[in-house]
């Protein structure tokens, strides 16, 4: 997983509306709609109060990261705030201020979790599934194979999601061992033993951290690429030709919210408090 830096997140809050309009032109849906579909939400859920708690562990705070997460959640008309304090003190503040859900990220893990009921959503899995749903909505022919590059947690989540939707997948990773252990037993996932010819695929999913390796030679006007990988794996010139769905944080965060909220809602119904 690439650790984001300030320049990756600094303009997110200012560009969210325009970006979501662009995203809708690309996929036919707004990010919230895609995230709800990825989370398997078919009914209106209660709005939960969300606290974003900065974490100073490891390499510490990324300037603008928590504020961007909060802005993304508010863009979906959710009730979110960033705690003034960090780490455990921030968790204490979040609960004192009535947060139902907390978002927090250290260098290894970014999660959303319930404060009153056991519920958790993880960024890599949610990003993988959110972008897979975005690709699915953009595919004119869902019987065509999708090429997934990168068997990281994001790529594995995407492969499992698409296979569950009966979409055939070719999967490739430069690390043969990582590829071998990915999505074991999934019938609809074919693992490639050599580097694929990109031009052969209309639908591509870039879950790598390679950056700028898909060029204008590899794509056509029909090509659709879901690209959660950071840095973006597709060159500017290729982005002018193909449909490239890419954002550093937005879709993963929104999908995390709905995945966590669905767990909370179902548990609350079980407990008779909804
Ligand atoms: C969640 C992002 C998506 C891609 N890489 C992940 C990353 O950069 N993780 C590190 C996040 C650190 C946040 C820092 C803060 O500002 O609270 N601890």
Task: Describe the structure using short key phrases.
11 strands; binds pyrrolysine; six-stranded parallel beta sheet; five-stranded mixed beta sheet; 274 residues; alpha/beta; 15% strand
Could you provide a short overview of the structure?
This protein is of the alpha/beta class and 274 residues long. Helix content is 40%, strand content 15%. Pyrrolysine is lined by residues 1-4, 54-55, 61-62, 65-66, 105-107, 110, 123, 230.
Could you explain the architecture of this structure?
The protein is an alpha/beta fold and 274 residues long. The longest helix has 21 residues, at 250-270. Helix 6 (123-138) packs across helix 7 (153-164) and helix 6 crosses helix 10 (250-270). The strands form 2 sheets. It has a 6-stranded parallel beta sheet. It has a 5-stranded mixed beta sheet with strand order 2-1-3-4-5, with helices on both faces. The protein contains 10 helices and 11 strands. The structure holds pyrrolysine. The site of pyrrolysine has 16 residues, from helix 4.
């Amino acid at each position: 997983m690439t650790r984001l830096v300030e320049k990756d997140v600094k303009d997110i809050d200012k560009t969210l509306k325009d970006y979501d309009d662009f995203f809708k032109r690309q996929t036919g849906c707004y990010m919230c709609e895609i995230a709800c579909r990825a989370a398997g939400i078919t009914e209106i859920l209660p709005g939960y109060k969300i606290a974003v708690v900065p974490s100073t562990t490891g390499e510490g705070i990324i300037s603008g990261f928590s504020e961007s997460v909060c802005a993304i959640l508010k863009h979906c008309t959710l009730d979110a705030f960033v705690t003034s304090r960090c780490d455990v003190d921030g968790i204490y503040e979040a609960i004192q201020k009535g947060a139902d859900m907390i978002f927090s990220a250290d260098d290894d893990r970014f999660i959303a979790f319930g404060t009153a009921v056991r519920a958790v959503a993880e960024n890599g899995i949610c990003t993988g599934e959110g972008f897979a749903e975005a690709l699915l909505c953009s595919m004119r022919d869902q019987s065509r194979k999708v090429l997934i590059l990168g068997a990281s947690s994001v790529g594995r989540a995407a492969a499992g999601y698409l296979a569950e939707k009966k979409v055939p997948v070719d999967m490739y990773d430069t690390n043969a061992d990582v590829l071998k252990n990915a999505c074991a037993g999934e019938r609809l996932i074919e693992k490639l033993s050599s580097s694929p010819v990109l031009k052969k695929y209309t639908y591509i999913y870039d879950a790598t951290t390679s950056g700028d390796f898909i060029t204008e030679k590899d794509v056509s006007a029909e090509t659709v690429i879901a690209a959660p990988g950071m840095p973006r794996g597709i060159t500017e010139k290729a982005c002018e030709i193909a449909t490239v769905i890419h954002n550093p944080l937005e879709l993963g965060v929104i999908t995390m919210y709905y995945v966590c909220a669905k767990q909370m809602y179902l548990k609350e119904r079980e407990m008779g408090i909804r």
